[in-house]
Specification:
Number of helices: 3
Order of helices and strands: HHH
Structural class: mainly alpha
Distance between the termini: 50 Å
Largest sheet: none
Shape: flat
Length: about 70
Amino acid sequence: MHQSRCIPLRQSLAPLYVQNRRDGSRLLSSALVICTIGATQIHQHWGVLVTSISAIVCIYWGYAYSRLER
């Protein structure tokens, strides 16, 4: 009989954030730069889109960064 192996969902998905503060600060600063670039082009449709998405990512990553151990 064929036995299927199931990978738990948590292990099959990539993590949404890193586990150390150094890499976390790099991700957060990159997202802030992208958000700033989008904000300079807010008068265009793509600027609004980039700013909106990157602002949400910045808020999430900022929260995740604050929860990492020092």
